[in-house]
Amino acid sequence: MRIALSTGGGDAPGLNAVIRAAVLSAVNRGWEVLGIKKGYAGLLGEEEVIPMTAATVRGIAHLGGTILRTTNRGNPFSYPIAQPDGTFVDKDRSGELIENSRKLGIDAVISIGGDGSMSIAHQLCQLGMKIVCVPKTIDNDVAGTITTFGFDTAVNTALEAIDKLHTTAESHDRVIVLEVMGRNAGFIALHAGLAGTADVILIPEIPYDIEKVCEKIAARDRSGRHFSIVVIAEGAFPKGEAPAIRGKSMPGQAVRIGGVAERLADEIETRTKKETRSLILGHLQRGGQPTGYDRLLAVRFGGAAVRAVADEKWDHMIALQSPHIVSIPLADVLKVPKRVEIDHDTVLTARATGISFGD
């Protein structure tokens, strides 16, 4: 049996722990393991496909990033090809990818990625490839699993920032707006904001009213609390508007959004006359060592992925459905994207403790 591992999409703490667990689990079965560098680029001649052994993954479980590297521009069904004039043309290279996989004698692929990677894997499975997926995203927006590895680390990074911002905000009687990741789902903002006792949490699932946000800040002022912490997901937007587009995207990438913290801070300062500062936490949330929870979850996912290959669970994703790790069909995962449920107990508790969602 010869399997290959691939990491695609944005990086997340815990990727190396998955790789190590999967490689060791496979090697101990007597299987051969290959690593596809940079998403699927290694199967398209633009990167390497390397042999992986127990020595290859020694000492990597605690490291952030991925030793296989990754990309969010590697969709083989719409692969950006550079033209002589500097423009790009999208080309379907899925057939080439499948053929190269066959030439390398790859029996199955373990694809580690988010919903974009899973959509690609599902399409490749329809063309005959044998793939098992492992869910990876700091946004926690993959359906069918209670959580994804990387999420807990990102929340803890955001929480540490909120704790530090509290002290400086209170010292200066300022409002501070912290922007965290969350393109379509506000899980990081919600969990970090509630754990960090933010005063306002703004997420994509609940379009906000700037007047309501300012009312909360004014109410705190009247009660003698002259500072406020606002946590906003990058994809949050005011009622009647659309998410803010931030700069140009690279070929093959989704439109970049974000930069909402500065705009919101300006509006708050204009309306409340309170000194307001903003901070974008950005890619700090993707970096660094995974927490113990994420590391353990990643290891469990990696081991379960190899078992799923042994059981021929093609076109399936490994998922946490506490207390068990299970495999579920990718078709079910991709039906409906996972979003914050506005009547979830976490949201209700936030509201009950006085946190405003700007609505």
What is this structure's SSE topology?
Layout: E1 2-7, H1 15-27, E2 32-36, E3 49-52, E4 79-82, E5 88-91, H2 94-103, E6 108-113, H3 115-126, E7 131-135, H4 151-172, E8 175-180, H5 187-195, E9 200-202, H6 210-222, E10 228-233, H7 260-272, E11 276-280, H8 292-310, E12 316-321, E13 324-329, H9 330-333, H10 345-352
Parallel strand pairs: 1-2, 1-6, 6-7, 7-12, 8-10, 8-11, 9-10
Antiparallel strand pairs: 2-3, 4-5, 12-13
CATH architecture of the largest domain: 3-Layer(aba) Sandwich
Ends distance: 55 Å
What CATH first level of the largest domain would be assigned? Alpha Beta
Structural class category: alpha/beta
Query: How is the CATH topology of the largest domain named?
Result: Rossmann fold
Count the strands?
13
Q: Please state roughly what percent of the residues sit in beta strands, choosing from under 5%, 5-15%, 15-25%, 25-35%, 35-45% or over 45%.
A: 15-25%
Q: Give the helices and strands as they follow along the chain.
A: EHEEEEHEHEHEHEHEHEHEEHH
**Spans of at least 5 consecutive residues with low confidence:** none
Assembly state of the chains shown = single chain
Helicity range of the residues?
25-40%
Evaluate the radius of gyration.
Answer: 22 Å
Largest sheet: 7 strands, mixed
Count of separate structural domains = 2
General shape = elongated
Q: Mean of the pLDDT scores? A: 94
Strand line-up in the sheet with most strands: 3-2-1-6-7-12-13
The DSSP helix count reads 10
